[in-house]
Amino acid sequence: MRAWRLGTLVLLFLLVALPLAMPIAAFVRQPSAMQALLDGTRLLILTRNTALLIIGALIIAVPPGILLAILLYRTDLPFRRLLRWLIFMTLFVPLPLFASGWQAALGSGGWITIPAWTTGDSAWTPWAQGVLAACWIHGLAGLPWIVLLVGQGLCWVERELEEEALMVVGPWSVLRKVTLRRAGASLGAALIWVAILTATEITVTDMMQVRTFAEEVYNQFTRPEVGQSVALGLASALAVNLPAIAVCWILLWTAMRRFEQGLPPLDRLSSTSPLLFRLGQWRWPLLILTGLLCGFVLGVPLGSLVWKAGSTPAQPWSKDILSYHLATTLHIRGGLIGESVLWAAVAGTLVAGLALVVCWLATDSRWMRQIILLFVVTAWVIPGPVVGIGLKETINLLMDLTHSGTLADALYYGYSPLPLLWAYLLRFFPAAVALLWPVVRLMPRELIEAARVDGASPSQELSRVVWPLTALPLLMASLSVAVLALGELSASKLVETPGSQTFAHEVFTQMHYGVTNDLAALCLWLLLALTGGATAVSLIYFYPSKPIIFGGEQRTTNN
Question: How far is Cα 85 from Cα 91, in angstroms, rounded to an integer?
Fold first, then answer.
């Protein structure tokens, strides 16, 4: 087992630690870049915008997310499985597509206008830019993640504690004082998840003209200041990010350690279904409210895309216009959609598989857990453009050291998905570990110990014990990474090779010209491609044939 651990750490050092450490070289080569830390106005603007973006997104996502998680996972709400499925489906909407849907509804030519103070104009204007628009999109995109992660934490609360509390106080006091408090670690993890996804992405902030720390790095890479070299501009942007990265690193390190301590004890984890709280006469009113909220989150962007794809400024909506643009887009961009889905699926499989191996090897090794936690926290808090720059420098270093034409074609000059897969690994390996670690930790230890007593090798233990016990959570983690990869732009855009443009990059480029018929049709085709796989997986997730660790109610639970 020691050889497995050392080999895995070497692999992680080469694939993760080295690219993340490469930006440090920018400060070595450009020491004058540290002068950027003295630019108080610049730091204040970036800090204010980033903080407003995160706080605004959390305000929009957290209250309804917690309410939906309670109603859909821990009450007897009618049709809760169907509503959970609708929320689950929204997870498969990549961020660029989600932003395009809302831009079609609220942007130029959309259905709704907003007050002028949000954009600085003197009159009511279409939703074109501003922090409010970015918060709205990030908040609604993060809402499904809040529901899923908090709902999972609510299902992990020990039923015995709740049943004992019911003997003393009423059900809603139990929910407030026992269930929600016991699920506090999952709630904290959900907040961190949405906050980091919001702070490290540039898809929405670039379109909405919001300067954040991540956006600053990207701007310096693509549009350096007049009279300033690209290298110095990048080094200055990275220097500006240092305080934010350090603060986020400390907060996330502390939160991750507390999250592990807040997981249910292995010997007290209930194998029965979660206790359901009765809604009584509020069942049907709450069902209507929940249905409207779920329909709003999923229906508005989807309906906006359908409307935008089938209408023009000169003509009202028509199915003929919709059919024409769908057919044209499929003919021209069908290959792009297929390739993007394929490589996102490959990335999800590889990243989740590596995360499973890492979590398995770390369960019995405290020193490895600390190293993995260091890798995960560092990779998670670094903004996407910084990750992309570090990966680009790593590729340049490999080509300089090896002088290999084959390696140069695979990583730089020729059409190749390898740089994209590498960028996806750097961006979403922490997410896969965060999803799988609680599951691997809660595996029955007696089965693993029995396999070791019987003389099973590490590979046999992994394939015959760990993988069968975690197959469904592994699938869920793979899909989560695949969906995130479909929308990843901040790092992959900087390293993609000629001819390997991704769906996210294409949508990002077209969004700057507004949501056209072809862009809306492109998004609809991607949604259609994802719907079939998402539906099949959701049926497995919500209707398992046997009890699973990662999930909601068991099959035997009555609706």
Answer: 10
Query: Rounded distance, CA 21 to CA 35, Å?
Result: 21
- Residues of the chain falling short of pLDDT 50: 117-126, 266-271, 544-559
Do residues 350 and 428 make contact, with C-beta atoms less than 8 angstroms apart?
A: no
- Identify the bridge partners of residue 277 per DSSP, sorted by sequence position: 75
pLDDT single digits (tens) 290-349: 988 888 887 888 888 888 888 877 778 888 888 998 899 888 888 888 888 899 999 999
- Residue 460 falls within a domain, yes or no? yes
Q: For the chain, how many helices (H) and strands (E)?
A: 27, 2
Residue 446: inside a domain:
yes
- Give, to the nearest 10 degrees, the angle between helix 230-262 and helix 184-200: 170
Kindly state the tokens that stand for 380: 């998670």
Quote the CA–CA distance of 222 and 234 in Å, as a whole number: 10
Residue 557 lies in a domain: no
Q: What is the pLDDT of residue 224?
A: 60
How far apart CA 12 and CA 283 sit, in angstroms, is: 49
Q: Kindly calculate the radius of gyration of the chain based on its CA atoms and give it in whole angstroms.
A: 24
Q: Would you call 451 helix, strand, or coil by DSSP?
A: helix
Q: Encoding tokens for residue 29?
A: 């080569």
Task: Please give the pLDDT value at position 124.
Answer: 44
- The structural domain count of the chain equals 1
Where in the sequence is the domain holding 497, given as residue range(s)?
Answer: 2-25+46-267+284-542
In terms of Cα–Cα distance, which of 423, 427, 417 is closest to 500? 417
Distance separating alpha carbons of residues 488 and 281, to the nearest angstrom: 44
Residues 387-427 pLDDT 10s = 888 898 899 889 988 888 888 888 888 888 999 999 999 99
Residues whose CB falls within 8 Å of the CB of residue 370, separated by 6 or more in sequence, listed in order: none
Beta-bridge partners for 125: 114
pLDDT value, residue 269: 47
Distances 206 to 182, 201, 347, 484, 510 between C-alpha atoms, Å = 39, 9, 25, 18, 13
Q: Are 103 and 305 in contact (CB under 8 A)?
A: no
How many Å apart are CA 421 and CA 491, to the nearest integer?
A: 11
Would you call 81 helix, strand, or coil by DSSP? helix
Q: Which structure tokens are listed for 181?
A: 């408090």
Which residues, 6+ apart, have CB-to-CB distance to 4 below 8 Å? 361, 458
The H or E element containing residue 113 is strand 113-114
Q: Is residue 547 part of a domain?
A: no
Amino acid occupying residue 373: L
Question: What CATH number corresponds to the domain at position 478?
Answer: 1.10.3720.10
Chain length of the chain: 559
CB 497 within 8 A of CB 105: no
pTM (two decimals): 0.79
d(CA 76, CA 486): 35
> Integer distance in angstroms from the first to the last C-alpha of the chain?
45
Q: 227 to each of 27, 28, 53, 241, how far by Cα in Å?
A: 19, 21, 31, 22
How many angstroms separate the CA atoms of 198 and 53, rounded?
Answer: 7
Q: Is 31 exposed, middle or buried (0-12, 13-18, 19+ CB in 10 A)?
A: exposed
- How distant, in Å, are the alpha carbons of 70, 83, 91, 99, 417 from that of 105? 30, 23, 20, 10, 34
